[in-house]
């Protein structure tokens, strides 16, 4: 038979016997038998409500054994099956309880499995205990960030950065102790926009604690973030405004942002009006970040002077805005701009 992983699925028994009988075939000798059984299991477990049928201790242990199979196609199919299981809340809980993270982490450098492993780990991070458990992988992930080769596929780099963001959100302080800001910074100026966006999202997570805000300024990250702010891409703008909003809490961040002339860009993003309701709803986080960034910059004499000239625009936009959350941040910004000591 062909050596690829696209062998036809094995025949599937009816009803509740489908998963147990296919699971038995995973124990049989013969690489092609296992591949066909895995393909059939993936098809069966994609059906609603079928996932819990596979969450027996014996079946999960068998899958863990197959993660170390000598055949790369078998390993890849097992990762696909685990990814399907992780679509269910009970599946994520079961995989975490069965300690799948260590064997999965060994496949981060396995080309046939790498992409699916990143997707799987991101699904596991949807569970609260999964985010905490992922922190055990942080040293390995940070080492990979340091050693990552530029020729890595863009999609894999984006998945990797998205996984890092999950870890940073769970414990940014631990990431900062691993020099995460300096290691992540080069990704902000990578030529591929998708990589830059993912790096900015991860940097935003690092910028939440005060130590991260200081590091972002000390490591001269903001010029690359300001450049990303100029992209005609809402996700890029959203992530960039998030970093700026957090960094501008510090005096150094305020001064760097003013020097980089981001204030007019933030003002435009905050005050642009759109008739389409869906677009307004989608842009809400971007508008909120932009107005909060303006509020931070208004705390400096230069920022306040620049924004005082724009008070009619700020007031008009606030009055025309229907969303109460956006109205509130505009009102706060106006109060800061009009404050007199």
TrEMBL record:
SUPFAM superfamilies: ARM repeat (SSF48371). InterPro entries: ARM-like (IPR011989), ARM-type_fold (IPR016024), RSP14 (IPR042856). Gene3D superfamilies: Leucine-rich Repeat Variant (1.25.10.10). This is Radial spoke head 14 homolog. It comes from Oryzias latipes. The gene is rsph14.
């Amino acid at each position: 038979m062909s050596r690829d992983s696209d062998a036809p699925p094995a025949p599937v028994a009816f009803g509740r016997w489908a998963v147990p009988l296919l699971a038995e075939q995973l124990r049989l000798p013969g690489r092609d038998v296992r591949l066909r059984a895995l393909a059939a299991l993936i098809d069966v477990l994609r059906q609603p409500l079928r996932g819990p049928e596979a969450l027996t201790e014996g079946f999960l242990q068998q899958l863990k054994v197959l993660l170390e199979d000598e055949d790369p196609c078998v390993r890849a199919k097992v990762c696909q099956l685990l990814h399907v299981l992780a679509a269910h809340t009970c599946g994520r809980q079961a995989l975490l309880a069965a300690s799948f993270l260590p064997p999965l982490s060994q496949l981060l450098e396995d080309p046939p499995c790498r992409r699916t492993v990143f997707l799987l780990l991101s699904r596991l991070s949807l569970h609260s205990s999964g985010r905490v458990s992922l922190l055990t992988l942080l040293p390995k992930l940070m080492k990979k960030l340091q050693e990552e080769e530029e020729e890595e596929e863009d999609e894999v780099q984006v998945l990797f950065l998205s996984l890092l963001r999950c870890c940073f959100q769970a414990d940014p302080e631990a990431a900062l102790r691993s020099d995460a800001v300096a290691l992540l910074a080069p990704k902000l100026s990578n030529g591929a926009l998708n990589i830059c966006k993912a790096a900015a999202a991860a940097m935003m997570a690092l910028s939440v604690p005060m130590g991260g805000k200081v590091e972002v300024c000390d490591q001269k990250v903001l010029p690359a973030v300001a450049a990303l702010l100029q992209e005609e891409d809402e996700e890029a703008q959203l992530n960039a405004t998030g970093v700026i909003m957090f960094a501008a809490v510090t005096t150094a961040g305020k001064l760097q942002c003013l020097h980089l002339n981001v204030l007019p860009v933030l003002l435009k993003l905050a005050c642009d009006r759109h008739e389409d309701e869906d677009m307004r709803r989608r842009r809400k986080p971007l508008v909120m970040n932009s107005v909060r960034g303006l509020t931070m910059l208004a705390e400096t004499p230069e920022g306040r002077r620049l924004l005082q000239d724009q008070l009619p625009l700020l007031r008009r936009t606030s009055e025309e805005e229907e969303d109460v959350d956006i109205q509130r941040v505009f009102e706060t910004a106006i109060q800061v701009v009009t404050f007199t000591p």
